[in-house]
DNA sequence: CCGGATTTGTACGTATGTATT
DNA sequence: GAATACATACGTACAAATCCG
């Protein structure tokens, strides 16, 4: 229940609610969230507050939003094992705007940048790879 | 220059401008961005549009915002080498709300979750570690 | 294919609260 | 205490994408 007297922003309270429903499976992967208008009405909020809540979940990689379509719980894609070669290293970071477009990455999805022993680098979508060391 | 006739949202155009100034060093690490009010006036936008632009940059990990203080270009912290042990693997993802608070992570900073050979896992701040394989 | 309904995106204005300097 | 700066929240309006009959 969203309570204005609590010392937590209303949109954060709504995000907490939705996050809980997702983690408990009440909103399963692929399932649509109620529309922004519906969420606003059922929780007594204005639409901007609802949008802020959903923006939080998007940044966490929990949901995906498509214009004119709606917001859905993100489905986990399979991660390909990627062996980290001897003498190489890897860092995780958020993609640049260009990288997000190039790799068709959703909001809230980091990239993995591998630097090989020869100094060259490669960038991989963070939700599709798992670095391994056999 | 921000141009309403262009087919790109005004707040995205402003984000592009600021992103460029950051990448070119005109806004160096640690440097403060103009205040939201100033940016709004100088570019002829309303403050909500300016806030959207800055929110984009925050999500990309380019800037940090502190209430009552302002927004500054993020300074890169040193990354500690972390050897990926034999038989382990690692994934990159965005932190949960709790993890962000626990590790005191800025917006736009992913985490690295290592799964060890015995099945146990550990989570590291994505901006402070570099996975290595000697 | 078209049109209408639904849904999210963009943008403005306003007001008030709270943290930092 | 005052000034500055960001955070939260409401309301409104129109644009644009998608879906469905």
UniProtKB/TrEMBL annotation, chains A, B:
**Matching InterPro entries, A to Z?**
Bact_HTH_transcr_reg, Tscrpt_reg_HTH_GntR, WH-like_DNA-bd_sf, WH_DNA-bd_sf
Q: Keyword DNA-binding on this protein?
A: yes
Q: Which domain of life is it from?
A: Bacteria
Q: Which organism is it from?
A: Micromonospora sonneratiae
Any idea which UniProt keywords this protein has?
Answer: DNA-binding, Transcription, Transcription regulation
Q: Which Pfam families match?
A: GntR
Q: Which PROSITE patterns match?
A: HTH_GNTR (PS50949)
Protein name, as recorded: GntR family transcriptional regulator
Please list the residue ranges annotated as the HTH gntR-type domain: 8-76
């Amino acid at each position: 229940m969203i309570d204005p007297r609590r010392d937590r922003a209303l949109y954060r309270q709504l995000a907490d609610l939705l996050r809980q429903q997702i983690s408990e499976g009440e909103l399963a992967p692929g399932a649509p969230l109620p529309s922004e208008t519906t969420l606003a009405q059922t929780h007594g909020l204005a639409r901007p507050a609802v949008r802020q809540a959903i923006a939080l979940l998007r940044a966490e990689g929990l949901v995906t939003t498509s214009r004119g379509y709606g917001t859905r719980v993100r489905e986990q894609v399979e991660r390909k094992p990627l062996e980290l070669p001897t003498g190489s290293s890897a860092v995780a970071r958020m993609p640049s705007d260009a990288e997000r477009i190039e790799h068709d990455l959703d909001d809230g999805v980091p990239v993995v940048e591998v630097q090989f022993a020869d100094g060259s680098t490669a960038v991989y979508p963070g939700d599709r790879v798992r670095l391994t060391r056999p």
